[in-house]
UniProtKB/TrEMBL annotation:
UniProt cross-references to InterPro entries, sorted A to Z: Tetraspanin/Peripherin, Tetraspanin_animals, Tetraspanin_CS, Tetraspanin_EC2_sf
Protein name, as recorded: Tetraspanin
Subcellular location: Membrane
SUPFAM superfamilies: Tetraspanin (SSF48652)
Main location: membrane
Gene, per the UniProt record: TSPAN3
CDD domains: TM4SF8_like_LEL
Sorted UniProt keywords: Membrane, Transmembrane, Transmembrane helix
Membrane protein topology class: Multi-pass membrane protein
PANTHER family (UniProt xref): TETRASPANIN, TETRASPANIN-3
Keyword Transmembrane helix (UniProt): yes
Entry's transmembrane regions: 12-37, 49-75, 87-108, 207-234
Organism from which the protein derives: Ataeniobius toweri
Cited Pfam families: Tetraspanin
Keyword Manganese: no
């Protein structure tokens, strides 16, 4: 009786988890897509495309997780030994994939600062203030979005080619924090005071931590799913032996 109760409880948890896995599949794909979109906004400051590997893996894990939810629901309801075994194996593969995402996430998170430090000076040097220039669009976007100006502060603009050519003692309008600001260095109180380098690093590291915590959360859920599936499998494999013993005792 207790064994049957254990199976029923495990099956209930499994069905519930499979429903969560479907939702998790959508969340994982969303997180991966978010990383791709954000990388596109900051790609001039971070040239290493291998940073996108965790995002690619997490999207693949999301697709597999959707398949797992389908297999798991069918196998649990039917109590199919083959289906539950497949469910556990595929779930184990996704679990290992998410562990890889966590490891790669920590590796690339540590590399972010060095990558940004190497790239950001070059990007600012190539700024020309026109919308047709990719570097100019990237810098203006980042300065408005992160509310920053220059690499370390607004005075860094005085060492750029754009400043030398413009000769108007000003910084780009994207540095302005007040309405009516012209970017003039004569009114520094109208400009963002913080540099962009530290904020870009912080933003990219936050995105990587977002990926890491998402992968860790769903990896823990998958461990619970594997445990419940194993309980059902073990109980079911013992059930025929138990029934034989009962029948043998009745006949005696």
């Amino acid at each position: 009786m207790m064994g049957q109760c254990g199976i029923t409880s495990s099956k209930t948890v499994l069905v519930f988890l499979n429903l969560i896995f479907w939702a998790a599949a959508g969340i994982l794909c969303y997180v991966g897509a978010y990383v791709f979109i954000t990388y596109d906004d900051y790609d001039h400051f971070f040239q290493d495309v291998y940073t996108l590997i965790p995002a690619v893996i997490i999207i693949a894990a999301g697709a597999l997780l959707f398949l797992i939810g389908l297999i798991g629901c069918c196998a649990t309801v039917r109590e199919s030994h083959c289906g539950l075994t497949t469910f556990v194996v595929v779930l184990l593969l996704v679990f290992m994939t998410e562990v890889a995402v966590v490891v790669l996430g920590y590796i690339y998170r540590a590399k972010v600062e060095d990558e940004v430090n190497r790239s950001i000076i070059k990007v600012y040097d190539e700024y020309n203030g026109t919308n047709s220039n990719a570097q100019s669009r990237a810098i203006d976007y980042v300065q408005r979005q992160l509310q920053c100006c220059g690499i370390h502060n607004f005075s860094d603009w005085q060492h750029t080619h754009w400043y030398d050519k413009s000769k108007n003692n000003s910084v780009p309008i994207s540095c302005c924090k007040t309405a009516g600001c012209t970017g003039s260095l004569s009114h520094p109180e109208d400009l963002y005071q913080e540099g962009c380098e530290a904020l870009v690093v912080k933003k990219l590291q936050e995105i990587m931590m977002y990926v890491i915590w998402t992968a860790l959360t769903f990896a823990a859920m998958q461990m619970l799913g594997m445990l419940c599936a194993c309980v059902v499998l073990c109980r079911r494999s013992r059930a025929p032996t138990y029934e034989l013993l009962i029948n043998g005792g009745t006949q005696a």
